[in-house]
Amino acid sequence: MAPLVLSLGDPAGVGPELIAAAWAARAELDLPAFVVAGGADVLRAAAATRGVDLPVAVMDDPASAAALFPTSLPVLTTVGDGPYRPGEPGVEGARLALHSLEQATALALSGAASGLVTAPVSKSELARVGFTFPGQTEFLAHACGIAEEDAVMMLAGPSLRTVPLTVHVPLAEVSRLVTIDLILRRCRVIAAAMTRDFGMAHPHLALAGLNPHAGEKGRMGDEEQAVIAPAIAQLQAEGINASGPHPADTLFAPHKRDTYDVAVAMYHDQALVPLKTLDFDEGVNMTLGLPIVRTSPDHGTAFDIAGKGVARVNSLVAAIRMAASAAAHRAAA
User: Domain 4-149+290-332 maps to which CATH number in 3.90.226.10, 3.30.750.24, 3.40.718.10, 3.60.20.20?
Assistant: First the structure.
């Protein structure tokens, strides 16, 4: 199987040092081979802040990455490089981050890489160099030629997988945005991805209610009766194992989490608060519905701690492992 490809992320953030730290622990953690899209000098300098001796193998073609990975970090020269200024983002670094993302995506789309792991970027910095997308997920949907609505964000950790139906929108808008069509569209993508990327024959999707106590039969809101329940009935008619609407205040309890494969939440915090409470250091952001495998650590650039050697590598390691596992499931299908 081809190696994974990692995008560098913003070079002023924690991405480069975490990539170096992950490579340094490759044998101990039994990590699959990966290649980084650009930033050889940035990676060397970032590694030094963590006391990591980082031999780098620069290359134009990732085909030899797997053979070199045990003794050096493969880095593509086709992207370029730049200065390492931890905690000091700028236009030059944003350009490097964007070029790395573009090259890494192209490698995944071509099949030269089995999957893509994206390090954190700064959306505001990318906007300064012409990046017009809300985030990396929307960029990837466009690059893959699919509608943004069909690129579904799942947050996953050792204890929980959860999908927010609506993401970065005001809470006051959620009720209007949660429709039968949205639920059907997203849940179809989720169910197919659980089979394709996780090998689940009949994944169980548990849908949360929007209102307290799942509306309590209309006493606390009617979205459950008017929207969520009819959507669940349609999903069941299509053969998708969906249940609910479940009261959100009990859906994430330990005895409940064992009964489903994915919790489908109605809005951002309903999904992310339990995930980050349970699996903060090992959470992974995975984009479902793409023709390529894409994961990312569930944290940002952390400019405030970049270069200080204190950023934890757990989430990036989990993202690498999840991407490799999903790629293996796809290859075996």
Answer: 3.40.718.10
